[in-house]
Amino acid sequence: MSDSTSPQWLAWAREIQALSQTGLAFNEPGYDTDRYTRFTEIAAEIIDQHTSVSKAEALKSFSAQPGYATVKVDVRGAVIREGKILLVQERRDQRWCMPGGWADIGDKPSDMVAREMWEESGFEVKPTRIAGIYDANRIQNPTEFFHAYKIVFLCDITGGQARPSDETMDVGFFAPESLPPLSECRTNDRHIEDVFAHWKDPAKQPIFD
Q1: Is 10 within 8 Å of 138 (Cβ atoms)?
Q2: Of the CATH numbers 3.90.79.10, 3.30.200.210, 3.40.50.300, 3.40.1790.10, which one belongs to the domain with range 72-208?
Q3: Count of C-beta atoms within a 10 Å radius of residue 147
């Protein structure tokens, strides 16, 4: 399904790839295998034509995602201290976001976000509640091919101190009116606005798409 913020070619490529991945997972070896394999190639060719990712790179990425096609999960931790939100500067694009990343198999979501906060910012935290659950692909110019949901947890600092990591260049606290350039595929203005809304109103219900 497409929407106003995602280019139509990306919506088509995602749907074709998901159908082919699921088809290959449940198809008995035979004629349809060639069909589903060709669908995978078509999706990779679309990506190749519209992005800097080559067909070979796309196919390699697809091959690492076997089985029934399902949504990936990204977790983010939100900490506000003295009216300022904790952000980290990503090494990959040198922009800023809430600490977090892809959820790992076998981890509880709350444990995952606590570990990501520690690894990327140097702070020990306790997740306290969920600010929102978002469709991570419905942003302008999404950079991730695979469909993903984003869960933003509100957290309290319990220890540690600010320090960069292998993935982050810097750590800082920022007022909502003086935010640095955001890594919008990871954290955007809507996420931060929702976090501050929950901080101001502890009784506010989680937001969801």
Answers
A1: no
A2: 3.90.79.10
A3: 19
Domain ranges (residues) in the chain: 8-63, 72-208
The first and second tokens of residue 195, run together, are 């976090």
Nearest to 18 by CA among 82, 92, 70, 89: 70
Rounded to an integer, the average pLDDT of 77-97 is 96
pLDDT value at position 58? 81
DSSP 21: H
The 3-state DSSP class for residue 186 equals coil
Give the pair of three-digit tokens for residue 30. 């035979």
Cβ within 8 Å of residue 10, ≥6 positions away: 50, 142, 145
Q: Taking all residues of the chain, what is their mean pLDDT, rounded to a whole number?
A: 87
Backbone dihedral angles phi then psi of residue 147, each to the nearest 5 degrees: -65, 140
pLDDT bin (cut points 50, 70, 90) of residue 18 is confident
pTM score: 0.73
Residue 155 contacts residue 79 (beta carbons within 8 Å):
yes
**Sorting pLDDT into bands at 50, 70 and 90, what band is 145?**
low
Question: What pLDDT, on the 0 to 100 scale, is given for residue 5?
Answer: 57
d(CA 145, CA 148): 9
